[in-house]
Design goal:
The complex is a heterodimer. Chain A is an alpha/beta fold. In chain A, β1, α1 and β2 form a beta-alpha-beta unit. Chain A is built from 15 helices and 17 strands. The N and C termini of chain A lie far apart (about 55 Å). In chain B, the strands form three sheets. Chain B has a two-stranded antiparallel ribbon. Chain B is globular and about 40 Å long. The chains are: A alpha/beta, B alpha+beta. At the A-B interface, α3, β11, α6, α7 and β15 of A face α1, α2, α3 and β6 of B.
């Protein structure tokens, strides 16, 4: 047993764990952070987009030193059928600003840097250490952790669980349920390397400008899912994710979907000639507001993906992770300054502060979206994309058919596929869930 | 590269770096005679194709190429089909990019 006692132990060195460890260490707490990977980042997978605002609150001058890829000036949403895509693109020179709002990053590299900031703030970061259990006292209060190292038990006043979406520890300790297959997506991703100039010309970029493509449609074969293409400096992150329950139900393979997405005529030219250097997979919390577990207890709090804090609609996760980690740390600091014990009645402050932040406000806004998307995935991810593609082609193809007849044809294809009441119902349900 | 043919997942895993904890697999399949529907679904759902059907019709897992996503834990742990832990510290997949 490590005789030394810490003020706080943070389990995991992802976005949430680093934010929590940094915030506590900076304010003089004695922090131990445990990470199972060889180095912080070596087990972490994300698209990835970094949201500047949330990192600025932790490392104000991060732009000077963090390994950033490209700042985003353009967003492309694609609705795809097998041979086409209908796009909604937004590009603005306003995003070429002194302090850009969003960046693409490569997580393994970024997290290494982020962890260095945590160390510089005075925290002890111990890698290659898997936490196996929580240690408790006779009253059931969490007093530390046990690890797979020989002298495994380490004590602290409070344990911050930042163990990620697949948080085995919390489930094992009975703090929260294992996520259900309906509440998590599995995403697979490849890193495609190309010369910088090739990426810039194919994506219409200058300098460090970046672009994100997010695509739904027949690429997910009727499952609830999304494909993504992120331009980094010298590589492209390309992947696709669908609900685990949908994979289970349909028997589709994740790598099969990925390969089909890559072969799509709208995608293939973007990655042609690239060299793939990594294949990864990761789960994404998709349950939204209703899937958030108990966030604190006797001697513990849970933050980030482990707490299912992910905004599916806006595809935001790492910023919710960073913010929840920071807010949990601030609550802990406040409790400490009052010399109060790390017990539920005091740690409830974390939830109170989180409820007041954008994290819970945003998730509450979309609380009904996951259920809507998941139960009607055929309509939203297969039928509508096909109908939209047909309508667009009908609109654009000039063949002597009078426009009035063309419009009738398009309308008929919609009502035939979904019926009038079905169309109104879908629109109504979507509006209600969005509100 | 991408147009002509679909790649096998085994080729994809070749890109990755692993430190295999020989003799200590972090996922264990419970001995069975006939696999449950959940366990059977892993033949397709596992992104690293760690699960295979043997000649006796049972499912076996070879976790050397596991990318530690946890999909099988989500599907098969509740039914008792598998025991799932993270690899020991430092072992398993090592992402360079992530």
């Amino acid at each position: 047993m490590i005789a030394e006692k810490f003020d706080a132990i943070v389990v995991g060195a992802g976005m949430a764990g680093n934010a929590a460890a940094l915030t506590m260490a900076e304010r003089g707490m004695k922090v131990l952070q445990l990470e199972r990977g060889e180095y912080p980042g070596s087990k972490n997978v994300q698209g990835a987009i970094l949201y500047a605002d949330m990192l600025e609150k932790l490392v104000p001058d991060f732009r000077d030193e963090a390994p950033l890829e490209r700042h985003l000036v353009e967003q492309r949403f694609w609705m795809m059928d097998d041979r086409s895509h209908t796009g909604l693109h937004y590009r603005s020179d306003d995003f070429n600003e002194e302090k850009p709002n969003r960046y693409t990053i490569i997580r393994a590299q970024f997290d290494k840097w982020f962890s260095q900031k945590v160390r510089e703030a005075g925290a002890t970061v111990l890698c290659e250490t898997t936490v196996t259990d929580l240690a408790r006292d006779a009253h059931g209060k969490v007093i530390g952790v046990r690890t797979d190292r020989r002298d495994g038990e380490i004590h602290a006043d409070v344990v911050v669980l930042a163990e990620g979406v697949n948080g085995v520890l919390g489930t094992r300790a009975g703090l929260r349920e294992r996520p259900k297959p309906e509440k998590v997506a599995l995403a697979v991703k490849e890193m495609h390397f190309l010369p910088r100039e090739t990426i810039e010309s194919r994506f219409n970029l200058r300098g460090d400008e970046g672009v994100v493509i997010e695509a739904v449609g027949t690429i997910s074969r009727g499952m609830t899912g999304m494909g993504f293409i992120y331009a980094n400096k010298e590589c492209i992150s390309l992947g696709i994710g669908c609900l685990v329950a949908d994979f289970q139900r349909t028997g589709e393979t994740p790598y099969g979907l990925l390969d089909r997405f890559k072969r799509h005529p709208s995608v293939a030219p973007l990655i042609e000639g690239s060299e793939v250097k990594e294949y990864s997979a990761h789960l994404i919390p998709e349950g939204g507001f209703k899937a958030i577990p108990q966030l604190y207890g006797k001697g513990w709090v849970v933050v980030g993906d482990a707490a299912q804090l992910n905004n599916t609609i806006h595809r935001e996760g790492s910023n919710l992770a960073m913010t929840s980690g920071r807010i949990a740390a601030e609550a802990i600091l406040q409790i400490r300054s009052r010399n109060q014990p790390m017990l539920p009645q005091n740690l409830a402050l974390y939830k109170k502060k989180l409820d007041e932040s954008f994290v819970i406000k945003d998730l509450r806004k979309y609380k009904d979206m996951p259920a809507l998307m998941h139960t009607r995935s055929q309509n939203f991810f297969l039928t509508y994309p096909q109908l939209v593609s047909k309508a667009m082609q009908n609109f654009l193809r000039v063949d002597g058919t009078p426009k009035v007849d063309k419009e009738k044809l398009t309308l008929k294809s919609f009502t035939k596929a979904r019926s009038r009441s079905g169309l109104f119902g879908d629109a109504f349900r979507l509006m209600r869930a969005w509100r | 590269m991408s147009i002509e043919q679909s790649m096998r997942v085994e080729d994809k895993l070749f890109y990755n770096r692993y430190l295999v904890d020989t003799g200590r697999p972090h996922i264990k399949v419970r001995p069975h005679t006939k696999p449950s529907p959940q366990l059977l679904s892993m033949l397709k759902a596992c992104p690293a194709r760690c699960y295979e059907l043997n000649e006796q019709g049972q499912i076996e897992a070879t976790v050397d190429g596991c990318v530690e996503c946890g999909t099988c834990r989500i599907i098969c742990e509740e039914t008792g089909d598998i025991e799932w832990s993270y690899p020991r510290g430092g072992y398993g997949v090592l992402f360079k990019f992530g």
